[in-house]
Amino acid sequence: MRAVLLGSFLVSSFISFACSCFGPSTFCTTLDPPYPEPEWWVPEAVVMAVVVGQEAYGVDVRIVRSFSGALQNDEVIRVWGDCGALCRRYVSGSAIGDTVLWALQPTDYSGNVICGTQLEGDGDYQLSVCGVYALAYANGLVSGPLTTETTEVMDLEDFAALVIGCLATGLEDLSGRDELKVSQGPDCTTLSLATSSNVNLSIVDAAGRVCVSRSWNGAPYRMDQLPMGMYSVAVLTKQDRFVRKVQVQ
Questions:
Q1: What domains does the chain contain, in order, with CATH numbers?
Q2: Chain centre distance of CA 27
Q3: 3-class DSSP state for residue 160?
Q4: Which pairing describes strands 125-126 and 76-80: parallel, antiparallel, or unpaired?
Q5: Which of 35, 52, 125, 226 is the most exposed place for a label (fewest CB within 10 A)?
């Protein structure tokens, strides 16, 4: 499979003219924009997929791995790009067999109006240009403007933890249960689980950088190896996800 680099923030002069929009300049801030009322920036799904078909200015892709959202592995979806006059990235240049890593939103059907088609339908997605919605993937590594405007590289597991950390901002406990315990002692901040369990632990700093990504049995975990600051701590089990904002003093 070939990897497609669609993560560049550069767009053609025609798109710049036809599309009037602005958005976050890193992938992490696209997931959690630092602007008021950011809902229209935030993608519904972050996926790795393989292109399996083409249709006009869109492509059909098969999900290989879902990092966030409800899309499932092996599910085939249609993703619409730019026809030449939309605030979207071009996807029609993607060849069958290409591997892509995209942050997707449900289609806004703008192609049916501006592009003069009736092709976009319910259940379809779009790839926006108003932020960083596409990254490069090759040889097990993800690259692009992940947490800064320069190109960064990380493996898939660190990327999965990054997505969780970026989406965690402002959330306390996504499952509604109080499993993740945080103890602020005089010497250090300690994490533990209310019930011992084999889980995945990730800790992401305020800039979206992955500081810890490891398996964990819930025994007390000291955070004193980390610099002072605010962190997103996420615990993933087979059924739940627990997220806390934790201050290391």
A1: 13-166 (2.40.50.120), 170-248 (2.60.40.3080)
A2: 7
A3: helix
A4: parallel
A5: 35
